[in-house]
Design a protein that fits this description.
Chains: A mainly alpha (about 160), B mainly alpha (about 425), C alpha/beta (about 325)
Order of helices and strands of chain A: HHHHHH
Bound molecules: sodium ion
Helix content of chain C: 40-55%
Helix content of chain A: over 70%
Number of helices of chain C: 11
Family (chain A): Belongs to the TRAP transporter small permease family.
Main location (chain A): membrane
Radius of gyration of chain A: 20 Å
Radius of gyration of chain C: 20 Å
Strand content of chain A: under 5%
Distance between the termini of chain A: 34 Å
Organism (chain A): Hydrogenophaga pseudoflava
Structural class of chain C: alpha/beta
Largest sheet of chain C: 6 strands, mixed
Oligomer: heterotrimer
Low-confidence stretches of chain C: none
Strand order of the largest sheet of chain C: 7-6-8-5-9-11
Subunit structure (chain A): The complex comprises the extracytoplasmic solute receptor protein and the two transmembrane proteins.
Shape of chain A: elongated
Mean pLDDT of chain A: 85
Number of strands of chain A: 0
Number of domains of chain A: 1
Pfam family, one (chain A): DctQ
Shape of chain C: globular
Largest sheet of chain A: none
Number of helices of chain A: 6
Strand content of chain C: 15-25%
Largest interface: A-B, 60 and 65 residues
Chain lengths: ~160, ~425, ~325
């Protein structure tokens, strides 16, 4: 059905984004290793690296949210649904998807405001003095995508629930 | 009872209610926290708090160790390091009664030093050691139970994602908690080995004796284990020696593990994709949980209910040991039906002030919490690690696995009692290292 | 009518110096003077937000009504207050706080639009803490030095050291494990975070202070009933800035004396000739701050003028 093709596409896109983000995280880890080496061996760490790493890490982690929400890899407890039967389970999953989407929609809205505020007040990264709104706009974008993805799962029927640690 | 306390209780009920209705735990806590905070302090600040708290957590270098350690563990698995560990442990003790089980537990402990998750450790050893135990005639339930229980060592032996979560929420240093867990981890290993020795003596049919490894086999196994020893020594040693911080050690570990996977030509498109996607999913859901927990934590703080509760408990005159015992029972019951990490995170704003008011060290309580979580991951009906092993070996009945876990559960509860009675076991090493 | 309730956020624990000796008394004093129109509740220990970097945002978002903020934690916004961060300019927190507050009150400083500062102030200057003796600029060469702030970072680079970024709570640990070779902090911080227990050599060379403030949102302040406003006005301003500085200096003195008396720590006061060596390297860095923007020159002159008057007892 066109419906399921659509959701498969969204899932693939979100997974691709998450894949790229964790790849980026690995590169960031490599940068950190270089920074450590330079500091330890030559006492000359990369200027302002820690600030950039923490902001970039935030962007990369936010880029994992769409995948987490679209694939519903989340820490949840489904005892009630399992004991009440599959019809109930579907209804509960749908309710949970609505709440999740609403929560992330609020977060997205606040993040857009936050990024705009960072732009207006011209906040800078310490030492390097680059504008921080660039990073937080990227975070805002990914949270908007996550909220949109979560909204799409409301209409989608979940086959099996994912579990976690 | 004043209004804020009632409001806090309503907030807790709302959280549990939403969780029961399948809402992800992080989202449930976040929603209850935002609404509760909004009712007390206004909705504009409550909404703004969503962005600022998310910002704090996403940009936190402490929390960033979680995805990095997940990456390290994934690449270490891809590189075949768990199999090396298992082979080594097997070469050393495989010929004893219960030797394969002991090798599994030893391998789990070794892998725990490069992996921060209990589920990942159990899953990894479910693949690395379960088939060989079963093919050597071990009872499937006992073999699966060993893997499930051994896997929990992954969160007690540093690095540990649960310790990071605890340290961040309790505002303690991650490294102090790691150091505090070292002696309890050693104790855990010993208790596991004792449980195996006792169980196999009582039920020898569960664990037939295997052949003794030759000297050449042992030498080969030792040589093959060099990479994993090197990785663990770099990550933990570098952190302890001050070459790098906890976050940096995780980054270095992830890069090294990636390097080993490439060097052993184990990194294919498929394994790379699996490692990266696994990290994305696990980290994403942990961050959602923590963001929700911090939102709920502020709500709880602004009601000042935790202080009210501390005062009430103190005024009631309940002896401390009885209160601690009641907390333990509550946690273990909660762990039976609830996600253990979520239970720790939800109860933290209330339990931690109590623990501190009794004069206990929050670091000690962190270790205790991890051990409780280890137990919760093995208890029915919702034992996460048992489910993981069941997922790997679907033919073994769940009841058989729970039966196989029982000797370990008994030893875990004994171990918890020992750690409760002697806080020095957790606190002595950090004291000594502080100088 | 019921009193208006204000939430006062501090990221410090309730018993920490400034929170216990300045912020909590301020809350009590203003509440008492308000004739029942105001009730200020302290939320110490970061219960409204534990990240020190986010304290200003807590206030502008309305999560808290009054906040205790470290101004350079909002990089780019309060650049004018960097004047107190220049090494050798101020020698104690009281004079630095009063002078900086006067600059704020007369409207010389930008970045405070929409904010009502109950006080602007400064910490005591940071000094050097290490495990090997540090006497001269050459002792910093190739060393890993923990410091925060743009200007201090440039100073360390000029001295040939490598500035390393470490969060406040992890300084003692980084020093004890050798992640950094030395750290620059004021004595109060040393006391609070036990830096003296992991370092043994201290050079009392004043390398610049950090600007701080007690902040409200202007519109929140304006919306208060008149008695509440005048109670707050009465408890704040230059007098509060002075109290802030004095509280810093008291703790400074106490910790320095305690550390000096300890057998394991050596506190060195540099001789004039030694200070001259340091100034040879650092003065040009200060000069480059002065000439970076035309307004910096003005701020520098006005601040020096205020300091002169304050030192003369005015
Ligand atoms: Na571990
Ligand atoms: Na359980």
């Amino acid at each position: 059905m066109s419906d399921s093709i659509w959701s498969a596409r969204v899932e693939r896109a979100a997974a691709g984004l998450a894949l790229a983000a964790v790849g980026g995280l690995l590169l960031l880890a490599a940068g950190t290793a270089v920074d450590v080496l330079l500091r330890f061996v030559f006492a000359s760490p990369i200027r302002g690296f820690v600030d950039i790493a923490s902001l970039t890490g935030a962007v990369l982690l936010a880029a994992c949210f769409p995948h987490v929400l679209v694939s519903r890899t989340n820490i949840s407890v489904d005892i009630l649904g399992r004991s009440l039967g599959s019809g109930f389970k579907t209804a509960l999953d749908r309710f949970a998807a609505v709440v999740t989407a609403a929560f992330f929609a609020l977060m997205a809205w606040q993040y857009v405001r936050f990024a705009m505020e960072m732009h207006e007040t011209q906040q800078l990264i310490p030492v390097l003095r680059w504008p921080v709104w660039l990073w937080w706009s990227a975070v805002a974008l990914f949270i908007v995508l996550a909220a949109s993805g979560a909204a799409l799962t409301v209409w989608k029927r979940m086959p099996e629930d994912n579990s976690n640690e | 009872m004043n209004d804020p306390v009632v409001l806090t209780l309503l907030g807790l009920f709302a959280t549990f209610g939403l969780v029961a209705l399948h809402v992800p735990v992080g989202v449930a806590m976040g929603a209850a926290g935002v609404v509760g905070f909004g009712l007390l302090a206004g909705f504009d600040p409550a909404l703004a708090m969503i962005a600022s708290e998310t910002t704090n957590n996403l940009a936190s270098l402490e929390l960033a160790t979680i995805p990095l350690f997940v990456l390290m563990g994934s690449f270490a698995s891809v590189a075949g390091l768990p199999e090396d560990l298992y082979r080594l442990a097997y070469a050393l003790v495989g010929h004893r009664r219960g030797g394969l089980a002991m090798a599994t537990v030893g391998g789990c402990a070794g892998f725990g030093a490069v992996c921060g998750s209990s589920v990942a450790t159990a899953a990894t050893f479910g693949k690395a050691s379960l088939p060989s135990m079963i093919s050597r005639g071990y009872s499937p339930g006992f073999a699966a139970g060993t893997v499930a229980s051994g896997g929990t060592l992954g969160i007690l032996i540093p690095p540990s994602s649960i310790m990071v979560i605890y340290a961040v929420l309790a505002q303690e240093l991650i490294i102090t908690l790691y150091i505090a867990a070292l002696v309890p981890a050693l104790i855990a290993l010993v208790f596991h080995l004792c449980a195996i020795a006792v169980h196999t003596r009582l039920r020898p049919q569960d664990a037939p004796i295997g052949p003794r490894a030759t000297a050449a086999e042992r030498w080969q196994a030792a040589r093959m284990s060099c990479p994993v020893v090197f990785l663990a020594a770099t990550v933990i040693g570098g952190m302890a020696a001050g070459v790098f911080t906890a976050t940096e050690s995780a980054a270095v570990g992830a890069v090294l593990a990636f390097g080993f996977a490439v060097w052993r030509r184990a990194l294919t498109r498929k394994t790379l994709r699996q490692a990266l996607m696994g990290t994305a999913g696990t980290s994403g859901m942990i961050y959602v949980l923590i963001i929700g927990a911090s939102l709920f934590g502020y709500f709880a703080a602004v009601t000042q209910a935790p202080q009210a509760m501390v005062e009430a408990v103190q005024a009631s005159g309940i002896p401390v040991w009885a209160a601690v015992l009641a907390l333990m029972v509550m946690f273990i019951l909660a762990g039976a039906v609830f996600d253990e990490v979520a239970a720790m995170v939800i109860s933290m704003p209330f339990v931690l002030p109590l623990i501190i008011s009794w004069g206990f060290d929050p670091i000690w309580w962190g270790v205790i919490n991890v051990v409780i979580i280890e137990i919760g991951m093995l208890t029915p009906p919702l034992g996460m690690n048992v489910f993981v092993v069941k997922g790997i070996a679907p033919t073994i009945p769940l009841t058989a696995i729970y039966r196989g876990v029982t000797p370990y559960l008994v030893s875990n509860i004994l171990r918890l009692s020992v750690l409760l009675m002697f806080p020095a076991l957790s606190l002595w090493l950090p004291q000594v290292l502080k100088g | 009518a019921d009193p208006v309730k204000l939430k006062f956020s501090s990221f410090e624990p309730p018993m920490a110096n400034i929170t216990a000796n300045v912020l909590t008394p301020l809350a009590k004093e203003a509440t008492a003077a308000s004739k029942g129109s105001l009730q200020i509740d302290m939320f110490a220990g970061g219960t409204l937000g534990r990240n020190p970097l986010q304290q200003l945002k807590l206030v502008t978002d309305g999560v808290a009504d009054v906040g205790w903020v470290v101004l350079p934690y909002t990089p780019g916004r309060f650049d004018d207050t960097e004047i107190v961060g220049l090494p050798f300019v101020t020698s104690n927190a009281t004079e630095a706080s009063v002078a900086l507050h006067r600059l704020y009150a007369e409207g010389t400083l930008v970045g405070f639009e929409g904010l009502k500062m109950l006080a602007v102030g400064a910490t005591p200057p940071v000094v050097i803490h290490a495990n090997k003796p540090v006497r001269l600029p050459a002792d910093l060469k190739g060393k890993r030095v923990r410091a925060s702030g743009d200007h201090l970072t440039r100073v360390i680079e000029a001295l040939g050291g490598a500035p390393v970024q470490v969060g406040g709570g992890q300084i003692a640990e980084s020093l004890s494990r050798g992640v950094v070779d030395m750290t620059l902090n004021n004595w109060g911080f040393v006391g609070d975070f036990k830096v003296n227990e992991v370092s043994s050599q201290h050079l009392d060379l004043p390398l610049g202070a950090v600007a701080v403030g007690i902040v409200m949102r202007q519109d929140r302040f304006d919306a208060l009933p008149p008695e509440a406003r005048s109670a707050l006005e009465g408890a704040s301003g230059e007098a509060l800035a002075r109290k802030l500085g004095q509280a810093f200096d008291r703790q400074e003195k106490e910790v320095r004396a305690r550390v000096s008396a300890s057998g394991r720590n050596t506190v060195t006061t540099p001789s004039e000739a030694e200070v001259a060596e340091w100034r040879k390297v650092i003065d040009p860095v200060n000069e480059s701050w002065r000439t970076a923007k035309p307004r910096n020159q003005r701020i520098h002159a006005a601040f020096a003028e205020h300091l002169k008057r304050i030192r003369a007892g005015a």
